[in-house]
Every structure is written in structure tokens, then in C-alpha cells.
């Protein structure tokens, strides 16, 4: 009877080994990075073209003009 009790006990839990990410996971992450970077580049180029066709030197001058007022305060 004691043998049955001893046989029913579970062996001590072993810690799972850390596995390296699979090749498929690495490819998926690389695809996401490439898609994100290309989207950002296309947006910046599009904004630059829009700013250039509307008379701004570049997109940063356009943003500056949008955020600042054209009238000076305190002058009469």
C-alpha cells in the first residue's frame, strides 16, 4: 500500500527551458518593423511635398506657422 502512495506522487516540477524565438516569429517582427518604417517615410515625404507646393520651405516651417500666431501681442 505504501508503494502505491509513493508511485502516485508527482515528480518535482522542472523549470521550462527558455527557447529562442522561432524563425517564423523573427520574420513576423521584421515585417512589422519594415511596414512601420515605410509608412512613416511615406507620410513624411507626403507632408514635405504638400508643404513645398503650398509655399513653405519645408514641413517644419509649415508646422511652425500652424502653431504660432501671426500677430504680435502687446503692440498697438
Task: Describe this entry's structure for a reader.
The chain is an all-alpha fold. 62% of the residues lie in helices and 0% in strands. It has 3 helices and no strands. It has helices at residues 2-8, 23-53, 59-67. The radius of gyration is 31 Å and the shape is elongated. The termini are far apart.
Short description:
The protein is mostly helical. It is built from 3 helices and no strands.
Which features does this protein show?
76 residues, mainly alpha, 3 helices, 62% helix
Q: Please tally the helical runs, counting DSSP H or I stretches of 4 or more residues.
A: 3
Class based on secondary structure composition and strand pairing? mainly alpha
Reported for the largest beta sheet, the result is: none
Question: What share of the residues lie within helices?
Answer: 55-70%
Terminal CA distance reads 104 Å
Given the C-alpha coordinates, what overall shape results? elongated
**What is the number of beta strands?**
0
**Sequence stretches where pLDDT stays below 50 over 5 or more residues:** none
Return the average pLDDT rounded to an integer. Answer: 81
- SSE series: HHH
Content of β-strand: under 5%
Our Rg estimate from Cα atoms comes to: 31 Å
Amino acid at each position: 500500500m505504501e508503494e502505491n502512495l509513493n508511485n502516485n506522487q508527482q515528480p518535482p516540477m522542472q523549470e521550462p527551458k527558455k527557447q529562442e524565438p522561432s524563425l517564423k516569429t523573427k520574420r513576423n517582427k521584421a515585417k512589422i518593423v519594415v511596414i512601420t518604417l515605410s509608412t512613416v517615410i511615406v507620410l513624411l515625404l507626403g507632408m514635405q511635398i504638400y508643404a513645398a507646393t503650398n509655399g513653405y520651405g519645408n514641413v517644419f516651417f509649415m508646422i511652425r506657422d500652424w502653431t504660432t500666431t501671426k500677430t504680435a501681442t502687446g503692440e498697438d
